[in-house]
Amino acid sequence: MRVDSKILNKTLYIGLTGELDEHAADYTKAELDSLTNAAPMQRVVIDLSGLSFMDSAGVGVLIGRFKKLKARSVPVFLANPAPQTDKVLRMSGIYQIMPLV
Amino acid sequence: MDNKMKEQSGNKMTLIVPALSVNEAFVRSAVAAFAVQLDPTVDEINDVKTAVSEAVTNSIVHGYDGKGGEITVRCEIAGGGLHIEVSDAGVGIPDVARAREMFFTTKPEQERSGMGFAIMETFMDGLDIRSEPGKGTTVTMSKVIKRDA
Fold first, then answer.
1. pLDDT at B148 over 70
2. Is CATH 3.30.750.24 the classification given to domain A2-96?
3. Residues A52-95: tens digit of each pLDDT
4. In chain B, which among 95-114 make CB contacts under 8 A with chain A?
5. How does pLDDT run across B94-111, given as a tens digit for each residue?
């Protein structure tokens, strides 16, 4: 799992690359928390285009980050999921709280 | 039934791996590689990989509570489809009906989505869960993969 980031126009863009499963979940949580804690931003966009696989462990990671950022009033958006990732996310209903951009 | 299907029917594969999360990617990829002989679509392969990953995660996280053990994965081709059995000798599931409910999880503090069985049910064409507290759990799933000749 690789986590990349950049800040542009007060938006923190995070890119996830690799396979987000149970094995990668703890590392990904820690990386996302450290990025979102460090950066002053008004919103977060998580780009999922680099994910070649994601299962419900990934849904748990994303919802956990959403809750932490919601407490700071920072909205989170998702972008570019591949079909397999999109199918899992759609089923979870996550787009209602983290809309696609 | 053509010759290819006759030859494939009954073809089997068994994997036994330690219940470590690092093995999840290997197991789902191995099952996907075994399924390729049925000429599945990319979507069908992704469904199988996702369901297998959920079953293996359940064994690691719930069956063995992260303390290790063995997971056995059996695959068989029969009746124009793929049959997969994932079993552990872990703590078992006290209430299978409850565990199957969407978003039900016994470990909400670990940010678990509670979607595992719902994903297996939705992504596969059949799901059966047999569990005995203290003895373990066996999840059987099937996917119809039938190409017109």
1. no
2. yes
3. 999 999 999 999 999 999 999 999 999 999 999 999 999 999 99
4. 110-114
5. 989 888 888 888 888 888
Residue A85 confidence (pLDDT): 98
**For chain A, what is the radius of gyration of the CA atoms?**
12
Tens-place pLDDT, residues B19-30: 999 999 999 999
User: A64–B57: do the CB atoms touch at under 8 Å?
Assistant: no
In a 13 Å sphere around the CA of B9, the CA atoms on its Cβ side amount to 10
Exposure string of A66-96, with b = 16+ CB inside 10 Å and e = fewer, is: beebeeeebebbbebbeebbbbbbebbebee
Enumerate residues 6+ apart whose C-beta is below 8 A from B49: A53, A84, B28, B29, B31, B32
Say how far apart CA B127 and CA B133 lie, in whole Å: 19
Which residues of chain B lie closer than 8 angstroms to A91, CB-CB?
Answer: 115, 118-119, 122
The total domain count for chain B is 1
pLDDT at B89 (0 to 100): 98
* Residues with Cβ within 8 Å of residue A13, at least 6 apart in sequence: A5, A6, A7, A45, A47
Domain residues for B13? 3-144
Residue B99 within any structural domain of the chain: yes
